[in-house]
Structures are given as C-alpha cells and as structure tokens.
C-alpha cells in the first residue's frame, strides 16, 4: 500500500521539490500540501496521512509547536521535521514534542526516502549530521528555564539592565546567570554565546 505524505512548508519551491522527488517512487504519494501550520492541521484532519513532513521555521506557529498541537489531537500521528537547521537543541526539542524524525533538507534523496519509509513503520530517524551534533553535547550541563530565557534575551540584543528589569531580578543576578551560561555552552563572551545559541538551536527568535 502507498505511504501517503502531507508536506507543510511556507516555500512553494520546497514543496514542489519534495513532490517531484517522491512522484517517481511507487510506494510514496504526496496526499496534500500546506503553506502554514494551521492549514496543515486542517488538512491532516481531512486526509489522515501516514507521515507529515513539516518545516521548522514558518510564519506564526513554528514546526515544533505544530507537532505539539498535532500529537495532542492525534497521538498516533507520525511527523518529521524537514529543515535546514542542524542544531542539537532544535532536534532534541522536536523529538521531545513527539517528532518521529529530524531530517535535513540537504540530505541525499535516498536518505530522505528511506527515512520516510521507516517513519511510516513507526521507527525514528535523525539525520547523521544531527545525530553527531547531539552526541557531541550529551554530557553537557543542561540550561535551566531561567538561563534559556536570559540567553534568548541576549540573542535579541538586550543589555543586562533590560534583562533584569523584564525578569524582575537584579543586574548582578543577570551577570551571575550569564557566567554560568557561558560555562555551560563553552562561550567566552556575549557575541560567541549568541552565535552558539543560534547554531545549536538553543533559542528561537521567532517566538
């Protein structure tokens, strides 16, 4: 039987590329396409596809929030992120939200097709590049919720005083948190912390 796939991506060219790639596979069928999470959820309800491919970064509701919403309504839904972001933070958050896979748009055609077949069988698939990134940080100390909030504020360009005012803490406390953050992510200054946070997907500035 054919594996029916729903693709959700705000770039039509990406959706067209996926369709062109899958149309030559006898067991893979694109059942529907959507340009945003809300439309994708509506389509899922009507189509009940076997696998959903969703982009990570989209206007409005991002891919991870879509996964949470979808799995809350359809606990058995099999969904995979298809993205350009290889950071371990994004991948871990997506899998924790209920994703069956975390795949890169740069993946070879055969790798992506093989992953779709495995996910349709209920197996989990993570691109090799992402798996290696996750492995590199397995022993790292996790950032606390407060530290993640401060790191996000730093990535937005906020100075310590503004962070302190917004969070209702002292500037000295902010400095103390930043020191621990730098130690945990192996950064020597704010600029380096910003780049590491974005590369690893520890913060998202679309929220």
Automatic annotation (TrEMBL):
GO biological process: phosphorelay signal transduction system; regulation of DNA-templated transcription
Keyword ATP-binding applies: no
SUPFAM superfamilies (alphabetical): C-terminal effector domain of the bipartite response regulators, CheY-like
Keywords, alphabetical: DNA-binding, Phosphoprotein
4-aspartylphosphate found at: 55
GO molecular function: DNA binding
HTH luxR-type domain location: 136-201
Region forming the signal peptide: none
Pfam families: GerE (PF00196), Response_reg (PF00072)
SMART domains documented for this protein: HTH_LUXR, REC
Keyword DNA-binding among UniProt keywords: yes
Transmembrane parts of this sequence: none
All copies of domain Response regulatory, residue ranges: 4-120
Family matches, as Gene3D superfamilies: 3.40.50.2300
The protein's name: LuxR family transcriptional regulator
Organism field: Stenotrophomonas panacihumi
């Amino acid at each position: 039987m054919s594996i029916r796939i729903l693709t959700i991506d705000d770039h039509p060219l990406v959706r067209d590329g996926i369709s062109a790639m899958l149309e030559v596979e006898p067991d893979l069928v694109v059942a529907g396409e959507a340009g945003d999470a809300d439309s994708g959820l509506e389509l899922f309800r009507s189509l009940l596809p076997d696998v959903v491919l969703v982009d990570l970064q989209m206007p409005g509701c991002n891919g991870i929030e879509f996964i949470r919403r979808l799995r809350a309504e359809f606990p058995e839904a099999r969904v995979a992120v298809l993205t350009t972001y290889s950071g371990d933070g994004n991948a871990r958050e997506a899998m924790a939200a209920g994703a069956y896979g975390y795949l890169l748009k740069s993946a070879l055609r055969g790798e992506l097709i093989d992953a779709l077949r495995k996910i349709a069988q209920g197996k989990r698939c993570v691109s090799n590049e992402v798996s290696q990134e996750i492995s590199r940080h397995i022993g790292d100390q996790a950032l606390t919720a407060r530290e993640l909030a401060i790191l996000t504020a730093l990535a937005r360009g906020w100075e310590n005083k503004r962070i302190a005012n917004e969070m209702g803490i002292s500037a000295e406390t902010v400095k103390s948190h930043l020191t621990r953050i730098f130690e945990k992510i192996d950064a020597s200054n704010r600029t380096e912390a910003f780049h590491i946070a974005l590369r690893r997907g520890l913060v998202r500035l679309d929220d």
